[in-house]
Amino acid sequence: MKAKVTISFKPGVLDPQGRAISHALAGLGFEGVGDVRQGKVIELDLAETDAAKAREQVEAMCQALLANPVIETYAIELAK
Amino acid sequence: MKAKVTISFKPGVLDPQGRAISHALAGLGFEGVGDVRQGKVIELDLAETDAAKAREQVEAMCQALLANPVIETYAIELAK
C-alpha cells in the first residue's frame, strides 16, 4: 500500500521559506503573488495491505517523527 | 485564485531525506516500510482570476524558481 502524507504549517505560524519564495518571485518580476506557504509531502511504500491498519501505522509515524504537532498539521492519503 | 505546486524528485534521483526518514522509522520500530520519498508542496495565493493565465504564470514560476527541472518534476493544481 502507498501512503502520502502532506505536512503544512498551522495557520499563523511564520513560514520563512514561504516568505523567501514570495520575495524571490517578486524579484523575478512575477506580479499578483500574495501569500506563499511551503510544506512537505512524504510518500511511503508500506507492506501493510489493510487500509485501516496502514492508516493507523502512518498516524503513529506522523506523531512519532514525520510531523511536529506543535506547529504542523498533516493529511494522510492511502492508495493501493 | 489558489495554486498548489507539488514538487518531487524524478525516479532514480537519490533522495537522502527520504533515506534518513526510512532509517529513522526503522529505528523507532516501524516495520514493513519500504521506499520513502520526500517532496515539497508550495501553496500560492494569486491575484489572477483566469485559470489558463494562472496556470501559465505558475508554470513560469516553476521553470524560473520553484522546481529544478534537471532532478525534479512538478504538478500544478488550481482552485478558486
TrEMBL record, chains A, B:
Keywords for this protein: ATP-binding, Cytoplasm, Ligase, Nucleotide-binding, Purine biosynthesis
Q: In which pathway does it act?
A: Purine metabolism; IMP biosynthesis via de novo pathway; 5-amino-1-(5-phospho-D-ribosyl)imidazole from N(2)-formyl-N(1)-(5-phospho-D-ribosyl)glycinamide: step 1/2
Under Enzyme Commission nomenclature, its number is: 6.3.5.3
Q: Which GO terms describe its biological process?
A: 'de novo' IMP biosynthetic process
Coiled-coil ranges per UniProt: none
Q: Which family, according to the similarity comment?
A: Belongs to the PurS family.
Quaternary organization: Part of the FGAM synthase complex composed of 1 PurL, 1 PurQ and 2 PurS subunits.
Q: What is this protein called?
A: Phosphoribosylformylglycinamidine synthase subunit PurS
